[in-house]
Write a structure and sequence with these properties.
The structure is a homotetramer. Chain A is an alpha/beta fold and about 400 residues long. The first copy, chain A, is about 45% helix and about 10% strand.
Chain lengths: ~400, ~400, ~400, ~400
């Protein structure tokens, strides 16, 4: 039996836009035909996924009448019921239509901002009706190229105003829904607001209803800036704010690649998987990625399979990390557990601080002790490479 | 009269380590002799600076006896009094000595963490005794290369514990001192904790005494990751957390360069100066930079002069921005002021949200309107280039 | 009279695809209507441009019959004659159609490679018929995401084979045409072959007819990798291989931005302009850039005006650099001219090398001399900022 | 028996400066005591290395008298003889002493350039006397921060002059020595000349004796710019110019890290090893890396062991790549071998080019074929992860 075959209990989810990606890029036309959402649902179920997520426009073509929308949703719901696939998350497309060219919640024009809010309220209703418990907000056009044009403080005011309105709506409706902000540093705008996990975490603290809002960190987005995605997710977890996650692959300092999970940066991917699994994090393992542009439909399925298999391979390695006696000995040698000991066990009382200042430190001895990290790191590398 | 000659009222400050930088780098030995701190004070005063900042070790050589320290401090205080130069900020060197090779507040070894705290408490006393009102904390060694060795959540726990202890001490002593965290993404460690302004802002919210702690953003550090420094500082201001600032220059994706302010990224520097001046921000304009390694002492003075002159030139341009009729017309054409208008003037009441959803939006008309940013951006460029 | 108004004698050129860019990006639909090439010609002529360049598909819609093509070309030629605008360069679109998804000259499939060659031969005929003397080759799809799939040596063999065939054709036809390779590091592929000016220069030396092939360096492409564009162009000039140039603006480590010339990196732009002007380089000043996506047609014209104005402003500053007595004094102080003196005036004879080894060098004195670069750099900055 | 234990026949070499690195960095003092070169030789021999390389100053302390030098060399030679360790490569330190602060071969000051040449000639004699057949030239200070100060064409002239002189000397002496240029984009200078493998390859073609000069590409240096190291080395091999190689690890867009081989970018490392092994490249596998700063001497040995083990693990995987039937089937499906077929088997004759233009291409069919890269890439990932 294949130990790396995914099952719904693994909680893997994909967006309709991921397996449905048609391969268009800034320099080339579509290479793949459209993928019917119902067909996507069946394909994902056969592959062993747990759920499927969508932007409003992925499911309901923009401009549909109410009747058309209802028909589309009914057919989609039928596929979900037939397959058992769930919809754990939903989101809004606030970036494709030219009306959002100056942003959505931070557009100069108040009517654009109101339209963005209205579109999001509609999409929240749709998502909740299909069972979504997390609502992702990616501010893909909330940013600038010409810094003179947009005052950052005002933009953050408007961004917060929109979030406050969405939270108020969810409270008014009594929806069991939480929001997850997805940070990104740039592309398609020169600079985006809330560019990293940190900036978004900090922003949430200034909202009126911070408990309803958390993060949807994306591997590619944090990695584009050369920041450690594993560290960012760890800080989000430490802050109690990891509500959702976007898994994919990306090389530092390049265009947004959204490659198959593990296709680049497999070591970073390992530490991320280990973090989520060690923490027992209960959320969805969502893949926000797409197949290379050269693939046909078979390649798209290979892509989806590969995302899940790599996660499961890394999950198994994370388990073996804890059972590997040499790795555990190297951790002990590196004194890793000592970091959990408080520096001041009794707290920073006057006495404790005073005692500290008269303590005799043998700096030379402390400095001489080797960190043991070369050995530990090499052992982990060999675990990753499958030779231990 | 030179319109760009600095005066103490401009509140320019330098670190002892900046004009005293000796030009050592990873591949080369020192190119300049040591600079006596007293000589630095006199030189900075002659150049028109307002103040001088220091790490404990910059002023008092490590290993000094109490008597030696007192003699050094007395002589330094004499220079301050003779010149009128102030010490608005102080900080601790928690990175040069090998004892800190695994970090200071997040070192595995509790004794190293205690020593780091004790050294900081001593340095706080010294800084306060010389008038410092801001205490900068740069966690230059708080990070990792081998992710297996250091659990991020534990590291953040220890980092927060240290901050909580420092805040408790300042409260106990009744010192008029606030802390300013200085984020940096990497170097000298592979990945540093609190890598950006955002991550540090978010971290502060989890401390026991968040009011005492703010930010010391550095131009080079945020820029290394390709993030907009101007946006980061704007978010810090928006959060009420801009306590200090480090001005210098840096190219994206390179080693920590700490070049003369304006030497790279003059457009980013302009938007930063404009932001600080428009906000009437009352803090120090601190330069954390150093002369090119090839310079002699005369070059170091040229470097210091250049930092201040460029700030003053950009300040003048920021003023002219507001008085330039074509720029103001372009801003009006770009509808920049509309961003200050609330999206929902009455707030997100049920009625307001409901009304929003029945509002008719003319998407085509909204999408057709040009943003006017090419014209505006070009006008600002020409202001910067001095041809308007 | 406006000193920065462009004239045809300034030799500014634009691609049809630049002013005709419709604002589509990876996350959004077109924001601007199509621009008729004839209208583009008239608009560019009115703005003061010298010429217009095109990809085959920009002018002749793919799939046109011979009669349709002739009609399109005739109408376009009419506009050129009416306005006096020239076509100094032409190129082929080998990236938009899905057939090129695996590359053009380096596609696995020989039929794709043959089609790419045939399409290029047709486009060469078209370009030459309209007066083009330079033919640009941008290998936008010549690259990989999955390194296992494509052997680099074979890819370079095929790339060279294609270039050799194109050169043979031009020789056979007796066309007065030279080729210019346009390097790019990545996007739309994960890694592109010939990623920098250097790699392309080296590649040319392995071709059968290297004299016919040179470079078309692009500001954005070299800058994406954090490399100095000015240095790259200088090395191309030094190698006698600067056949064309693409001017625009870009931030390091980000997606391909193609901003208005000078919109980012104005200092790099200055050194580039100074290099071209000091060298008396006779080629076209071509802008391969496009307006921000938010602009309407008026904004597109502002964009085109801005490119040319910034070039002319920087050209004027480059002239003033040579006439500024303080800058010239600082150059003398920095001993800049000494770099033109040979190290071994008589060449590396046995005697000269032997003499060298017995020469007494006063290392301390040589090391003590300041480089004078802080002062020089600041003076140039002030020239750029228009305050001298 | 350990299948990954290194033996001299594996041709692994280390620099004295690598195992002897003392852990100093821009922000911290040395953490490790000096390592006696003789002790280094014995340690490397015990670890299974083939050879040891050095900068002149690594072996002979600067300022040594001729007698002191001879004593040092004699003792070192004794260790070589005792252990059987070889010295396949030597190089010059042209970057540590302040005299080189403005560069060595491209310094403004002719006396500095002459001193650099003289120092290199001495070091060549020393290297050759110990058996070196490759002489590496890393131009660590050949670059600028202030572009106004240094004319690039003149700098390239001087650089070429120096190379020409060194080649002349080697010819005069009849030494069996070839030169290998080591490119680097930046650090310790803002921009270095010959920043990539490509720029250096192109430069060599303009030298008087290009056959004597090739490349020493370094993993970290090419990777700093985000370029593919594997592609760069492949182009160097394709050009017949891979004379030496520097193996280590590095993250894109960061300071020069020189980590243990495979510590970052293990997938890039795999493709590199596969390239060298598939090509049967006969050169040394040289590690230009150093242990993390936190390590003690035991950690330094772990570091050296890890470099070699990882190479051998990847070499074994490269072999298995060729024998894995699923991978080979995926390569066939991806039509990888077709890239070796010429596009124009008969060459670019008039007839062949003419025939090409009348060939009927079924673009839709060609475009529809999937590339099969998702499947292939995933299989390689699983090979790397050791689960196949």
């Amino acid at each position: 039996m294949d130990p790396y075959a995914p099952a719904p209990s693994d909680h893997f989810t994909f967006g309709l836009w991921t397996v449905g990606n048609r391969g268009r890029d800034p320099f080339g036309l579509e290479t793949r035909p459209p993928l019917d959402p119902v067909r996507a649902v069946h394909a994902l179920a056969e592959l062993g996924a747990y759920g499927v997520n969508f932007h409003d426009d992925d499911l309901v073509p923009p401009g549909s009448s109410a009747a058309e929308r209802d028909a589309v949703v009914k057919r989609f719901r039928g596929a979900l019921e037939a397959t058992g696939l769930r919809v754990p998350m939903a989101t809004t497309n606030l970036f494709s239509h030219p009306v959002f060219k100056d942003g959505a919640f931070t557009a100069h024009e108040p009517a654009v901002r109101r339209y963005a809010l209205a579109k999001t309220l509609d999409a929240i209703d749709l998502g909740v009706s299909l069972g979504a418990e997390v609502y992702v907000l990616w501010g893909g056009r909330e940013g600038v190229e010409c810094d003179a044009a947009k005052d950052v403080a005002s933009a953050l005011d408007r961004y917060a105003e929109a979030l406050n309105a969405l939270c108020a709506y969810v409270r008014q409706q009594g929806y069991p829904l939480r929001f997850a902000l997805e940070p990104k540093p740039n592309e398609p705008r020169g600079d985006l607001f809330l560019p990293t996990v940190g900036h978004a975490l900090a922003f949430i603290e200034r909202l009126e209803d911070p408990d309803l809002v958390g993060l949807n960190p994306e591997f590619a987005h944090e990695t584009m800036s050369g920041l450690s995605f594993h560290h960012a997710v760890a800080q989000a977890l430490w802050s109690g704010k990891l509500f959702h996650i976007d898994l994919n692959a990306q090389r530092i300092g390049k265009y947004d690649q959204d490659f198959r999970f593990g296709a680049e940066g497999v070591r970073d991917a390992f530490y991320l998987v280990k973090l989520l699994e060690d923490a027992g994090w209960p959320g969805m393992r969502h893949f926000d990625a797409h197949a290379y542009r050269g693939e046909d439909e078979a390649g798209v399925l290979d892509f989806a399979r590969g995302c899940m298999r790599t996660y499961l391979i890394l999950r198994e390695k994370a388990r073996r990390f804890h059972g590997d006696p040499e790795i555990q000995a190297a951790l002990a040698e590196a004194r890793a557990a000592a970091l959990r000991e408080p520096t001041l066990p009794a707290g920073p009382t006057r006495d404790a601080l005073s005692a500290l200042r008269s303590e005799a430190f043998d700096l030379d001895a402390l400095a001489a002790r080797g960190s043991g990290c070369e050995r530990l790191d090499q052992l982990v590398n060999e675990l990753l490479l499958g030779v231990r």
